[in-house]
Amino acid sequence: MLYRTAGQFKTSYIADQALFPVKQDAFLLGIILALAWIVFPLTASEFTFQTLLIPILIYALAAMGLNILTGFAGQLSLGTGAFMGVGAYACYKMVTLMPWMNPIVAILLSGVFSAGIGVVFGIPSLRIKGFYLAIATLAAQFFLVWLFEKWAWLYNYNASGAIQVPNLEMFGVFVSGPQAASVTEYYIVLFVVTLLTLLCINLTRGNLGRTWKATRDMDIAAELIGINLMKSKLTAFAVSSYVVGVAGALYVFMWKGAAEPNVFDIPLSFQVLFIAIIGGLGSIMGNYLGAILIVGLPVVLNVVAGTQVFEISTPSAILLVALIAAATFLFWVARSLWGVGAAIGFGAVTLIYGYAQLQGFRIDSALIEHINVMIVGGLIIFFLIIEPHGLNQLWRLIREKLIIWPFPH
Amino acid sequence: MLNDIFIAPFVDMFTAPDFLMQVLWEGLVSGILYALIALGFVLIFRSSRIFNFAQGIMVVFAALTLVGLFAMGIPAWISVGLTLVVMFVLAVAIERVVLRPLVGQPDIILFMATIGITLFLIGFGETIFGGENKVMITEELGIPTGDTVLEPFGGLLILQHLDITVVVVATLLVLGLLAFLNYTQMGRAIRALGDDHQAALSVGISLQTIWVLVWFIAGIIALVTGIAWGARAGVSFALEVIAYKALPVLMLGGLESITGAIVGGLMIGILEKLFEIYWGQPLLGGNTETWFAFVLALIVLLFRPQGLFGERIIERV
């Protein structure tokens, strides 16, 4: 009904290959962009910026970088965290060595360094495949983090061994460091993320993207039809590491403010991998959906638990009910009874829990932290079972259903 | 510089052979534990093509369960028995809840699912037993403490009794496992499944039973490793890092090879200790053990992409 595609005729190949062949998609994206660029910055609180908006964008960007490598070019990597670290350290060295440098330029350039290192660690992919390669990327992960610790030049011989983001100015406004406003940081992150997303969409649609996909699907066959595997794999490593490195620079400069080497350790790599896989390998939008889920879920759980953030209140209860209703509806549209059951069950448990809390029932915060980890682990398995191809595939199913609605076929 | 890299370490080795033997011994002890963990990986990988990332956390979980049960006042040996029961229940639960619905999915999805299991077990273990570091019940289990001092070449070689026990028990476990795989019906079924899934199914081997069995064996191995490592370093989720060490062992030995897991484990245990003592600490500022094994495995793989003992990869279009 809303998603009627009938009557949208394509009269040329160019129109058929356009970024948005369906009008409604472009319209939907327009709404999302308007929300991200205008509505959120005007309405969001400091807390929302710091725990939801900025991290979701940064994690989505990192996952997009990984997705190019793993989802589009088929090379499984477990070293994302370390490459984020390379971006962050490169950016730190640049702004401290050349303080006159424009921060956005520094952030965009820092990806170049991680791209270079990514290519070096990508060379084994020419001989090693599959899980062997995944473990080989762990070599990058452990070696680079060790290097961040031992090579004192990287953190300017600080006593603490951590990198501390200085106050950086751009056109008289603080854009990073302790004095920068969250809104400014948000806009810079949003600008960079939008730019790189556009780049990634078009790269994956184009010639390069097609060679990546051919390499992923069957590399020997790809080689036989004349694709240069070395070029294909190494460009994938380069582009992926570039995006991941920029995400790492944003991660430290626009969000965390300071970082020790162990921030870039293996849990970060896995978090990004979760986002890419739960969002859907080989998709761009999936990274955003995955990031919303993986970053947002602990926040929602904490809000519900009410320990650190605020007491369960009427607005947050309404928000929660709305979220669960939406999830139930989406699962229902996608014909996933498992999903419907789980969403309702999850909602019931949280509401009972919220009510118990209102009556003065408390669980200590360490326990909630542990339960959070458990729930995230359980949800990963759950999402893999209901939709192994990720949230993006779920959205595609829903969209298909909406296009033919009210008819079943 | 060249002297420091190529000559001085070897001179050190020959001038102090007792210290070299000490280093080799310690490398051997950790190597045998890496080999054990890698063996758990290999068994699961062979029989189900699942790259089981949760092996490391199963080590911690088994050790935590044992210590936790003992803390509830249950006698030590009964706690061991109960922990084995818990590991069996875990194996059944993983097969029913996680693996069965995901049969036939791409490798990476199953790999992710095991990372999900990892997170779940971390959260579950911490929720039930608490997140703080615990002491392994070494004495209650009758594991000898103390040490023997030998004097080879007029020097000093200290062998912890605990380490000797670990080496003996681990060797027995590996031999037992090899005997089980080679001489029992169940063991042969596991190997058959590893060689060819469909052929194994067609002669009536039950996939589900074997999967539970393999995960249970991995659980037993996890318990032994957990006790051994817990006795040296305490029981906490920091133990998880030793599981990462099993990964380069797998690369080096080959994902399918049982021999490879054992040889690779010993090689990596010994070589990383040697590198750390003679090259890492004097030249690189130490703590090279975090990455040395990976880089070594990476270099070996550049020349032999299927690992030292892995099956030859034959690709067809």
Automatic annotation (TrEMBL), chain A:
Molecular functions (GO terms): branched-chain amino acid transmembrane transporter activity
One Pfam family from the record: BPD_transp_2
The keyword ATP-binding is annotated on this UniProt entry: no
Keyword RNA-binding: no
Topology of this chain in the membrane: Multi-pass membrane protein
InterPro entries (UniProt xref): ABC_transp_permease, LivM-like
Record key words, sorted: Cell membrane, Membrane, Transmembrane, Transmembrane helix
Subcellular location: Cell membrane
Membrane-spanning intervals of the chain: 26-43, 49-69, 76-95, 101-123, 130-148, 186-204, 234-253, 273-300, 312-332, 338-355, 367-386
Source taxon at top rank: Bacteria
GO CC annotation: plasma membrane
Protein name, entry field: ABC transporter permease
The organism of origin for this protein: Marivita geojedonensis
TrEMBL record, chain B:
Main location: membrane
GO molecular function: transmembrane transporter activity
Gene Ontology terms: cellular component: plasma membrane
Residue ranges of the TM segments: 23-45, 52-71, 77-99, 108-129, 164-184, 205-229, 249-271, 283-303
Localization: Cell membrane
Family stated for the protein in its record: Belongs to the binding-protein-dependent transport system permease family. LivHM subfamily.
Gene Ontology biological process: amino acid transport
Membrane topology recorded in Swiss-Prot or TrEMBL: Multi-pass membrane protein
InterPro entries according to UniProt: ABC_transp_permease, BCAA_transport_permease
Name listed for the protein in its UniProt record: ABC transporter permease
Keywords: Amino-acid transport, Cell membrane, Membrane, Transmembrane, Transmembrane helix, Transport
Pfam families found in the cross-reference section: BPD_transp_2
Alphabetized CDD domains for the sequence: TM_PBP1_LivH_like (cd06582)
